[in-house]
């Protein structure tokens, strides 16, 4: 997954060259990096070489159709979490249900309207990135300052607030303000404001120094950014 400041990578899978050209042009003008494949097998191979952020997948293709392509994709852990938007002229409810059952999260109807596709891609990319941040937070190593006695010592010695202590804990892990904001649900600016208060209370001027003070209380060495 690309950085949140970047538009992202979109894989278009369609056996009709005109559709590929139409969507590629629209997405590239919007700033996306575009990958293309003309069949399901090629799409699966392409995704394993370069992981896209979103897949636009034609439902009806010769050979391996879009539904089966999506099912195989969802069975592969490395690419299972990539959101799939089906493109289809099939609007009967059973086909829509089949698309969702295969693992798709949305669909657009043909003939394709690029503006609609761009809006849906942007919306699902935002959602995917939020989910990725949440998963990263769950996997993030907990600070070594989790010991209650260490926390109490820091709070009492430096008169830290609960939020300031949380920020200091993650600074000691080497996290950036943006990382800490994502973890704590704060804006980077708010994190920076808390960090300024921490600097004053600890009598330091840099995050490395603040981390060193905190980790000294825990008897460990700080991480640096």
UniProtKB/TrEMBL annotation:
<dbReference type="InterPro" id="IPR000792">
    <property type="entry name" value="Tscrpt_reg_LuxR_C"/>
</dbReference>
<dbReference type="InterPro" id="IPR001789">
    <property type="entry name" value="Sig_transdc_resp-reg_receiver"/>
</dbReference>
<dbReference type="GO" id="GO:0000976">
    <property type="term" value="F:transcription cis-regulatory region binding"/>
</dbReference>
<keyword id="KW-0238">DNA-binding</keyword>
<keyword id="KW-0902">Two-component regulatory system</keyword>
<dbReference type="GO" id="GO:0000156">
    <property type="term" value="F:phosphorelay response regulator activity"/>
</dbReference>
<dbReference type="InterPro" id="IPR036388">
    <property type="entry name" value="WH-like_DNA-bd_sf"/>
</dbReference>
<feature type="domain" description="Response regulatory">
    <location>
        <begin position="9"/>
        <end position="125"/>
    </location>
</feature>
<feature type="domain" description="HTH luxR-type">
    <location>
        <begin position="153"/>
        <end position="218"/>
    </location>
</feature>
<dbReference type="GO" id="GO:0005829">
    <property type="term" value="C:cytosol"/>
</dbReference>
<protein>
    <submittedName>
        <fullName>DNA-binding response regulator</fullName>
    </submittedName>
</protein>
<dbReference type="Pfam" id="PF00072">
    <property type="entry name" value="Response_reg"/>
</dbReference>
<dbReference type="InterPro" id="IPR016032">
    <property type="entry name" value="Sig_transdc_resp-reg_C-effctor"/>
</dbReference>
<dbReference type="Pfam" id="PF00196">
    <property type="entry name" value="GerE"/>
</dbReference>
<dbReference type="InterPro" id="IPR039420">
    <property type="entry name" value="WalR-like"/>
</dbReference>
<dbReference type="GO" id="GO:0032993">
    <property type="term" value="C:protein-DNA complex"/>
</dbReference>
<dbReference type="GO" id="GO:0006355">
    <property type="term" value="P:regulation of DNA-templated transcription"/>
</dbReference>
<feature type="modified residue" description="4-aspartylphosphate">
    <location>
        <position position="58"/>
    </location>
</feature>
<keyword id="KW-0805">Transcription regulation</keyword>
<keyword id="KW-0804">Transcription</keyword>
<dbReference type="InterPro" id="IPR011006">
    <property type="entry name" value="CheY-like_superfamily"/>
</dbReference>
<keyword id="KW-0597">Phosphoprotein</keyword>
